[in-house]
Amino acid sequence: MCLAVPGRVLDIEERDGTRMANVDFGGVVKEVCLEYLPDLQVGEYAIVHVGFALQRLDEESALKTLELFAELGMLQEEFGDAWEMAAAEKAGVTDGDGVGEVHRP
Hints:
By secondary structure, this protein is of the alpha+beta class.
């Protein structure tokens, strides 16, 4: 299943004529295309599906949705190992080698 997941824009850059952003999905950071939301700014939340930001979302709704998805195990299904690594890092549990670990800004 592919979810539309809320995430917070960390940074924005123009790449080959396309607005791209690094987006934080509760600890997992992915690259996202912003072409459908040309006025989205750093710090704002958006619903993202298959790498495209589709709709702006307020912070409260985004955080509630991420929490609900996590409780239902849907983020694990969507993000797999990266979600586990982010959760472990947030809890202060890492293997210490720095390989594959996700770091929040």
